[in-house]
Amino acid sequence: MNSYKDLEIYSESKRLAIEVHKISLALPKFELFEEGSQIRRSSKAVTSLIVEGYGRKKYKADFIKYLIYSHAECDETITHLELLFETESFKDKEKFDQLINDYSILSKKLNKFYSVG
């Protein structure tokens, strides 16, 4: 592994963050800066915390700590998706189900990655 870019959890989290970012910009105006801002922040934090942790990999405890933070942000993103869907600000059921599934899988991968590491 030469770079954080070689990590599957990195590439998957980045793909999802970009998707969530685009979706969030299409939310109703009243959600754009409230829940929209929160979901953009948490989805991007999943990726950035993986990168930050990787940069500290020389210190295994730091790497694991940042992966745990990333995992927490992943689960937070799931909550924001659920809130947006349940309040009907995000109405695309198929896209919602896909994102929930993808983030749930990513959450499990993050857990496994730092638990085994």
Backbone structural class: mainly alpha
Strand segment tally: 0
Percent of residues in helical segments? over 70%
Percentage of residues in strands: under 5%
Largest sheet geometry = none
Number of helices: 5
Low-confidence parts, pLDDT < 50 over ≥5 residues? Answer: none
Order of helices and strands, N to C?
Answer: HHHHH
Rg over alpha carbons = 14 Å
User: What average pLDDT do the residues reach?
Assistant: 95
Shape summary: elongated
Distance between the termini: 13 Å
Put the structure in a nutshell:
The chain is mainly alpha-helical and 117 residues long.
What tags apply to this protein structure?
mainly alpha, 79% helix, 117 residues
Please give the structural blueprint.
Layout: H1 8-24, H2 29-32, H3 35-55, H4 60-86, H5 93-116
